[in-house]
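User: I'm preparing a small set of examples for a lab meeting where we compare how different chains pack in three dimensions. I only have the primary sequence for this one, and I'd like the structure in token form so I can line it up with the others. Please keep the answer compact; I'll paste it straight into my notes.
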Amino acid sequence: MATIKQIASEAGVSSATVSRVLNNDLSLSVSEETRSRIFNIAEQLQYKPSRLKRMKQDKLLSTLKIGLVMWSTLEDEHSDPYFSAIRRGIETHCEELGIAIDKVIRGALKSDMTPLNELDGLIVVGSVDDQEVNRLYPHRDKIIFVNHDLAPDDCDSVELNFGQAMKEVLRHLHELGHTEIGFIGGSSNPVMQQEQGYQEDPRTRIFAELQQKRGFYNPELMYLTDWSSNGGYETMLRMLDAGHKPSACFVASDPMAVGALRALHERGLQVPEDIAIIGFDDIEVSAFLTPPLTTVRVHTELMGRTAVQLLLERAEGREVASHITINTKLIVRESCGSK
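Assistant: Understood. Below is the structure token output for the 339-residue chain.
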């Protein structure tokens, strides 16, 4: 792409003069011959001022119509803010850019739903069946999958680095001397279990793999439930009633960890003296629990904003699929016995 400096060199004038001429600065004292020469050279070199590019992009943004598919219902988001934060990131960035969200679909996709061909792009949040998505919206180059366990290689995607997250969790617990570590997780897609069967959450698989490598894996300490606080509460009670009391337990979401903490308190167990707890998400309340919860901070709003940016790149002509992985951060608080 041509620059002002290149035009100035060709025209035999300064870069400042070229800039002022191209911005139609009428106060500049320059001959018409020089002015014409600068414009002609700029045209020959196919110079496109950033202001013109921005005007073109603004026009594109104002006409875009996109759809949003959320596997989670409003009730799901109320009990676990993970997906609502992703949605908030999408909506906020769309509003900033002037992009209209023309269609919002929640929960399982219905087989009789009208195709979405009129949309300029589609953002899919959660493990929605990609074949169903493709049936409703066949333009795969304009579909962005967010937090989808099995996102197709030919579609754009935004994922969490679950491998990095689980390595940090287990490294921290191992350094504290824990080897018997319980696991309370959930299905990656509870809304669609009945229609599509159970899908394993990446945290479950990676936790098991990492514990096996160190020789600490115990399948009797692996428990699955739904993603609610009540799920965490009942599952922790179930673990204790089964006679299993690991020295530490990883709980795959903070709302579930809230329930697990309550169950431990009811049974008279101290955290972290009797059992250490680590959650996942770092929701606002986590820092105010008793004790404050060690957890994995997830940049959920960034995931949503990134999805919008990928969709915009596609609208501007990018042809190659892009797969973005967002890292997490372990936030150490008192529930693990170290700060």
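A couple of notes for your slides: Residues 117 and 138 are 8 Å apart (CA to CA). Confidence is low (pLDDT under 50) at residues 190-198.

User: Perfect, thanks.
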